Amino acid sequence: MHLDFVNLFIIFFASIITQNMVLANFLGLCPFVAVSTEIPTALGMGAAVIFVMCMTMALNWPINYLILVPLHVEYLQFLIYIMVIAAFVQIVEVFIDRYSSILYVSLGVFLPLITVNCAILGVLLIATLRNYSYVQGLVYAVGSGIGWTLAIVAMAGIRQKLRYSRIPKGLQGPGITMIIAGIMAMAFMGFSGMVNI
Amino acid sequence: MGLGQSRAWKVFFEGFWKNNALFRMMLGICSSLAVTNSVRNAVAMSLGVMFVTASSSTMVSMIRTIIPPRIRMAVFMMVISTFTIVVDRVLKAYYPAISAELGPYVGLIITNCIVMGRAEAYAISNPVIPSFFDGLGVACGYSFTLLILATVREILGFGSFFGLTVLGSWWTPWVIMVMAPGAFFVLGLYIWVMRTITKGN
Asked: Quick check: ipTM above 0.95?
């Protein structure tokens, strides 16, 4: 039992820092470039990503191991995963629109963007490849979500400071974001000696 | 026929250059970074994306009159996932080594915004043959970028090209180039160069 806990902690830590979704696995880069201009927006997007990642993992793991694997139709994984993500996001959107207008204003606007966020599908596929158990999968999903949020909020902070700097014309926008992301990736890689999965 | 060919070529070229997905519209950057650490992976990924984009654009265009507008996104997803599964199965069956190296990124062709973007922006409102060429053109433009990034990264990072050593033993490999930060740096500089070159037109 003690060993299990250590293992879970390693997965959690690694998915936040050394195997960071954006900076090490390059997943969810499109919103990373588009939404990382203001810190509050970045935080809202991050919260939505953590929530959806965790819930889709909770739904897809049983579907995969209780339905697809016993029936030997693992090749349908992609189709089923993306359908579950799309359907779940749609239901949540309708639900919070109906019951909480405050939550809808702060979280709801990001939800449609999430369906095509590759980080969500990426987490599910990586967890399947690594044969994670249910608990490991959930911990991995939460960690990845937090890691993604950490990266996008840090990037938004840096870009707010950059607003008044003089950047060469062709490098403005996505160009400079990529260079900063490279430097951030180097910083995150500095932890890689500590844990490995 | 001459007219038909020149039209197809025009659609192809617009997709390839004028609407180049990566440096003009910033779509599909996720997979472009992950698979460009070697030219071989980039080629495999390019072929996969070409197949999926061209086929799903063709398919969407064929069924465009019977897709109910409200659920068109879900229909696109189904079509794209189906073709992605084909690519995954073919890679697993014939090239298991490449399939293992690409890992989850084959499945992530589904969420590559380029494929969905072409279905939504072009195929849903255009006939079958132009849609095919539009999908192919955009995918080729994307592949062109992948190959440039992969070439730079593999030569600097391993001193080799497509697995063949091109730089002698005097070359000290820049290991950072094949790791994550190198990908970001090369893409950032590439965007800078391309935007400066194409500013005029």
From this structure: no
Give the pLDDT confidence of B107-149 residue by residue, as tens digits: 888 887 788 888 888 888 888 888 998 888 888 888 888 888 8
CB contact under 8 A, B110 and A178: no
> Which neighbouring-strand residues pair with B160?
B165
Region label for B88, one of left (φ > 0), alpha (ψ between -120 and 50) or beta (otherwise): alpha
- The answer to whether the Cβ–Cβ distance between A82 and B77 falls below 8 Å is yes
Q: Give residue-wise pLDDT tens across range B36-49.
A: 888 888 898 899 99
Q: Where are the domains of chain B?
A: 2-142
Range of the domain at A46: 37-153
Is A12 among the domain residues?
no
Domain total for chain A?
A: 1
In a domain, A158, yes or no: no
* Nearest Cα to Cα of residue B131 among B21, B1, B15: B15
Instruction: Tell whether B107 is within 8 A of chain A (Cβ).
Output: yes
Buried (b) or exposed (e) across A161-186, using 16+ Cβ within 10 A?
A: eeeeeeeeebbebbbbbbbbbbebbb
